[in-house]
């Protein structure tokens, strides 16, 4: 707390809201046309209205964001395997690609030396 000073909880709630809206929109987009709408919307509504889901999401742990990330990656992988959809394949690989830090992008990695002998 001494580094931050104070935490604005409204920003945390806003970030949570964007995360949950993005999850439900992404899940609906990935399942659209593959699942009947009479099943898709009630299923997403049940997940959205589950009290434990919201309690876990507001708890501040990384469990719910990790579960959201993994479930969307799994939906994209299954979409590609079942339907050979290039959109789902691109989503899966973009979500599973490891991020590199800025220093490693510039070539200043500690594992590889650029000096020549």
Poorly predicted tracts of residues: 108-113
Shape: globular
Task: Summarize model confidence as the mean pLDDT.
Answer: 76
Number of DSSP helical runs: 6
* Head-to-tail CA distance between termini: 48 Å
Instruction: Report on the biggest sheet.
Output: none
Describe the structure.
Helix 1 (9-31) runs antiparallel to helix 2 (37-49), helix 1 (9-31) runs parallel beside helix 4 (63-83) and helix 4 packs antiparallel against helix 5 (86-96). Helices cover 68% and strands 0% of the residues. Residues 108-113 have low confidence and may be disordered. The chain is mainly alpha-helical and 117 residues long. It has helices spanning 9-31, 37-49, 51-58, 63-83, 86-96, 102-105. The protein has one domain (9-97).
Please outline the helices and strands:
Layout: H1 9-31, H2 37-49, H3 51-58, H4 63-83, H5 86-96, H6 102-105
Quick gist of this model?
The chain is an all-alpha fold and 117 residues long. It contains six helices and no strands.
Please name the defining characteristics of this protein.
117 residues; mainly alpha; 6 helices; 0% strand
